[in-house]
Amino acid sequence: MICVETVESIVEEARALVEDPSYPAARRWLEEHSDGKVLGHFQVYFPEELAHAAGMLPLKIAGFDTTLQIRKADAHLAAFVCSIARSALELVMSGTLDILDMFVFPPICDVARHSCAVWARNFEDIDSQIMYLPHNAASAAAVPYLTGEYRRILREIEEVASTRVTDEALRASIELFNENRRLIHELYRIKRETPWLLSAVETYLLTRAAGAMPRERHNELVRRALAAVEHRDAKPQDKVRVVFSGGFCEQPPLDLIAVIQDACYIVDDDFMVGLRWLTEDVPVDAEDPIEALADAYLHRSDYSPVQHDPRKPKEEMLLRKVREAGAEAVIVAAAKMCEPGLEEQVGYSQALYEAGIPHLVMEFEEKTTTFEQTRMEVETFAESLLFEFA
Ligand code: SF4
């Protein structure tokens, strides 16, 4: 008798990694690589290939939920700062995450920019860097500029890892991460086309685990999950198809995603968007692999409130996502105190209103614990739409 793994058991493996703030898979990797170094970064896009090619383990530090008590970080960051900045700092200050050798902040907002100085001042052993992204992504100078910036970050990485990175190593890493993006895009394709076969929570956990473990092992995990989905026997339910917008940086609590999926199919979203930021493979045979990575970031990429590119008007991109996902409505969320997210919420709402697409506006915080009010709002929203579409 052939024993087939279940999606549930593989998702539980992913959950164990995602819900443990000490990053157990990274610790196991360090046990296996006694000279190994770890590079953490905020989860909005970072070219992890640069760290991987140097033999480092790149980790996405996406904050943490209510189980992490914020005790020390509040002394260093103002109360009006978003939760992810505080919880990421707390993870290190409390010693929960004591494995970082380098940390890279993208300059996505004032909070991220200023956090770098806080980290640099408080953690002597962590090389804290800002990776300066081009302000005008459409400029002809953007690719040469970003290539130069990636080279500068790579020199820092080489210093920390005590190695020199070759183009061959970069190409091998690009190939690995291309595969990872293809696998994650496939999870999303299944969720979009047959959301009853792979729920939003399952897709989220399987995807987010990528940032908490070596990517080679994550590729294997997702391959197993995709094989297991083929044996799933589930029937479609009468649920409204929605797109969730607002999870590009601070992540909504898992329970919030669960509350929404109880009433709706979340057929597309921007959770952990950095893992899917590049929408096509980065050419492996490019003469200059660093330039190829910069080019992909600027020209073959997704959108978010923290990248400003006149070729990708965010409202139009959201409407396109809704159309392509066959969604009937949108949850327009934003993390509390997230200036870019809250600002974009206004533009998204206006565009959806003008396009006649029903939407529900909400705020969240990674450490929210009660969802009864949200459950009532989502259920009322979903029921009113089912009634309207009936
Ligand atoms: S949640 Fe918003 S404000 Fe906070 S670091 Fe991310 S983009 Fe910046």
| Shape field | globular
Total of DSSP H or I helical runs spanning 4+ residues:
14
Largest sheet: spatial strand order: 2-1-3-4
The stretches of 5 or more residues where confidence is low (pLDDT under 50) are none
- How much of the sequence lies in strands comes to 5-15%
CATH class of the domain at 23-165: Alpha Beta
Count of β-strands: 8
The level of helicity is 40-55%
Radius of gyration, Cα only, in angstroms? 20 Å
CATH topology of the domain at 23-165: Rossmann fold
- Compute the separation of the termini in Å: 45 Å
The arrangement of helices and strands along the chain is: HHEHEHEHEHHHHEHEHHEHEH
Major beta sheet summary: 4 strands, parallel
Mean pLDDT over the residues: 94
Bound molecules: iron/sulfur cluster
What is the level-2 CATH architecture name of the domain at 23-165? 3-Layer(aba) Sandwich
Structural class: alpha/beta
Description:
Helix 1 (7-18) runs antiparallel to helix 9. The longest helix is centred in the middle third of the chain and has 27 residues, at 167-193. The chain has a domain at 23-165: Rossmann fold (3-Layer(aba) Sandwich). Helix 13 (339-355) links the parallel strand 7 and strand 8. The mean pLDDT is 94. The strands form 2 sheets. Strands 2-1-3-4 form a 4-stranded parallel sheet, with helices on both faces. It has a 4-stranded parallel sheet with strand order 6-5-7-8, sandwiched between helices. With 390 residues, it is of the alpha/beta class. 48% of the residues lie in helices and 11% in strands. Iron/sulfur cluster is lined by residues 82, 84-85, 108-109, 111-112, 249-250, 306, 335, 338-341. Residues 82, 84-85, 108-109, 111-112, 249-250, 306, 335, 338-341 line the site of iron/sulfur cluster.
